[in-house]
Design goal:
193 residues; single chain; mainly alpha
C-alpha cells in the first residue's frame, strides 16, 4: 500500500472541496477548490511520480464534482424549504378561503331571509289583509244577506288557499338546491346572484 499513499493524500481534498462549497457557497467555494490544485501539484512534483502527475487533474476534477454536488445539495435544501414555506402559505390561504366561504354562506342566508321577508310582506300580507276585509264584509252581510255573506266566505276560502300556495312557493325557494355539475363554488355563485 505504500505506492497508494500519494493517491490517499490527494483524496483528502475531497471532503475539503465539499465543505468549502457548503461553508462559503458556490461562488467562493469553487475558488477554494481551484486553490487546491497548487498544493496537489506541489505534492506530486515533490514526490516526482509521473503517475501522480496525471492523477492530479483527475483529483482536481473530482474535487470540482464534489463541490458541485455540495452546491446542488444546498439548492435542493433551499428549494425544499421554499416548498415548505409555500405549502404553509397555501394552507393559510385555504383557511382564509374557507372563512370567506362561510361569510358568503352567511351573507347568502341573510339575503334569502331579507328576500323572504320582502316577499311575505309584498304578497302574503296583502292576501291576509284581503282575507280580513272579506271576513268583516261577511260579518256585516250575515244579518241582511246570507247568500252574499256565503259568497264572501267562498272568496275568503279562495284567498286562504292562494296564501297557502304563495307561502309554499316561498318556502320551497328557501330549500337549498344542489345544482348538478356546479359544485360548491357554482352553488355559492348561484346563491349570491
Amino acid at each position: 500500500l505504500p505506492d497508494r499513499t500519494p493517491d490517499a493524500l490527494l483524496a483528502l481534498f475531497f471532503p475539503l472541496a465539499y465543505q468549502a462549497v457548503q461553508l462559503f457557497g458556490w461562488q467562493t467555494g469553487r475558488w477554494w477548490i481551484a486553490s487546491f490544485a497548487l498544493p496537489m501539484l506541489l505534492y506530486v512534483i515533490r514526490h516526482d511520480e509521473i503517475n501522480n502527475l496525471i492523477m492530479a487533474p483527475i483529483f482536481e476534477g473530482a474535487c470540482f464534482l464534489l463541490g458541485a454536488l455540495a452546491h446542488l445539495t444546498q439548492r435542493a435544501e433551499a428549494a425544499r424549504a421554499d416548498n415548505l414555506r409555500m405549502a404553509q402559505e397555501l394552507r393559510q390561504a385555504q383557511r382564509e378561503l374557507e372563512g370567506y366561504a362561510r361569510q358568503v354562506e352567511e351573507l347568502a342566508a341573510e339575503k334569502a331571509r331579507i328576500l323572504l321577508a320582502r316577499d311575505l310582506h309584498d304578497s302574503v300580507t296583502q292576501t291576509v289583509f284581503s282575507m280580513n276585509l272579506a271576513v268583516e264584509t261577511a260579518r256585516l252581510m250575515i244579518p241582511n244577506d246570507a247568500a252574499a255573506a256565503a259568497g264572501q266566505l267562498d272568496r275568503l276560502q279562495s284567498l286562504a288557499e292562494s296564501a297557502m300556495t304563495e307561502i309554499g312557493q316561498l318556502v320551497s325557494q328557501l330549500k337549498p338546491q344542489a345544482p348538478e355539475g356546479q359544485g360548491f363554488a357554482g352553488g355559492i355563485r348561484r346563491l349570491i346572484s
